[in-house]
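During the no-cost extension, the postdoctoral fellow (Dr. R.K.) reprocessed legacy sequence entries with the updated structure-token encoder. One reprocessed record is reproduced below for audit purposes.
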Amino acid sequence: MEEDELQRLYTWIDEVPLSRAKKNITRDFSDGVLVAEIVHHFIPRFVDLHNYTPALSKPQKEGNWETLQRKVFKRIGLEVTRNVVQGVIECHPGVVEVVLSNLRVKIEQYLLKKSGHGQDNSDDYEVRAHENYLSDSYSGEAGEALMQKDQVIIDLQETVDILQVKISKLQQLLKLKDKRIEELTDKLKTKSSSSGKARNHR
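Re-encoded structure tokens follow.
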């Protein structure tokens, strides 16, 4: 992501009153709790915060993300692949920013769509609260075109994330293979040296 895009994302996150201070975004968002809080801030009825427990262990983090996938992301049309989720949980640099950027787009699209329906009830209170903000970002045909471009960006960024995860795993595999080759080479050298000494004794 470009630096200016990252700064806009961080500014957007800072506007949300989170339960804990944002110190290291890669670690802070890895358990999914703060992601749930962001969605709850904009669309409260979509998130029951008691379903999300701060976690350090991988299984607990996976549980929070599975709940987000099942109960929240589907409702706003956000798709996050398993590989990308694992990248967030394992604190791979740059992955959570892409997820949060995509989440921001989907939240704004959802609120824009709801505000266009002209409904006036308690469930849509959060829509009215953000209507002015959204009208500055999207309007008419330009807004539709922008949303289409945003969707293309989301798809491309997710593809990049998946490739980055695969590259990371391949690099780890290559390191393991290099280490194994080195070990086998050392064994061959030792064996060759022992054989040479044995022939000399004869």
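Confidence is low (pLDDT under 50) at residues 118-139. The radius of gyration is 24 Å. The remaining legacy entries will be reprocessed before the final report is submitted.
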